[in-house]
Amino acid sequence: MSATHCDILIQGGGPVGLACAAWTLQKFPDAKVILIDRNPVDDADLVVADSRGTALSHGSKLLLDTIHAWPAESADIHRVHVSQAGRFGRALMTREELNQDALGHIIRYRDIHITLRQTLRSIQNKSPHFVWQHVNKEDEQIEINARCIVHAEGGLFKNQDWVESGRDYGQSALVGLVEVESAPPHQAWERFTSEGPLAVLPSHYGPNILNLVWCGTPESSQHRLQLSDADFLKSLQSEFGSRIGCFLKIQDRRLYELGLNYRKEITKDNEVWIGNAAQTLHPVAGQGLNLGLRDAFLLAEKLVGVFSGAAENQTPANVQSVLESYAQSRKVDRTTTIGLTDFMARVFTSNLAPIVMARGLALSALQWLPPVKTALARQMMFGRR
Fold it and tell me: Are 205 and 183 in contact (CB under 8 A)?
């Protein structure tokens, strides 16, 4: 066993951990940072890895633009149509209402992952004290003494090594790529069914090849996964309707279990948890990675503030104080985003008549009360600061 020392140890080489390292080193190139990454050094394996579409808000794009980490291929969302299957109530959100270039963007997970790796490599060349360690289970265990430990290794729901607070929604998300007959460009559709949300989202493959996210019970989702393509498309057409014509082709179907995990306290002594290591959300509002990137950006600001200053201010007590300040600054955004996502995941799957009626009224209110709709859209795009 070997030992080494650093100011900041970041555990996790996913997008949130990479972004935290990049923002920290961009602001303070002399930072003594060690990043522990369980992915291989080469990007080749990641190129053929997770191809699911991931929703990133326009606020996340603005943050990633500061480190030139926006992928070359993405699909912009200009309009979002929200409705209930077989029930009244609908709302349409547009970029023009918010005076923004886009409401959000859909990017393949592997693309954001690889782009952030490339960005960090370019920053690494100007960061003499940065160490990027790629490890696996067979590697020799390394003892690292760090003044601050950032946990950014979260994983997916039910694959995590921690469960503190939250709930199992009893749902799975079936994702894939679906070809349609005639889809308006740059439009996203979110349709709430009796089993959960059904989203059809743009992709960079073209206007008529869309990302599909279909939430349902584990049993229903498993059944849909095993259907023939023709039977699957027939079932999807029945549930979604004919707003974008016929569904012509489905590919790359896979399942993910859905639930909520969140830590009540995201700091302890000199340790801090961000991204999926701090909270794992239902995809109903597409907020998980966006919340994690805001975690990483604001934590980097706090860490730079303490470690770029005088050495006498880098005491354990001061580091702990800075992390507590970070946790306090994230409290409103984190609580609001977790609460809103949890509320939508539960309310939009209930078939109780009063709740169904309330859902329809709420969607109608969004359509006819622009200030309410604007406030909700801005929360989704930028969070609470």
Answer: no
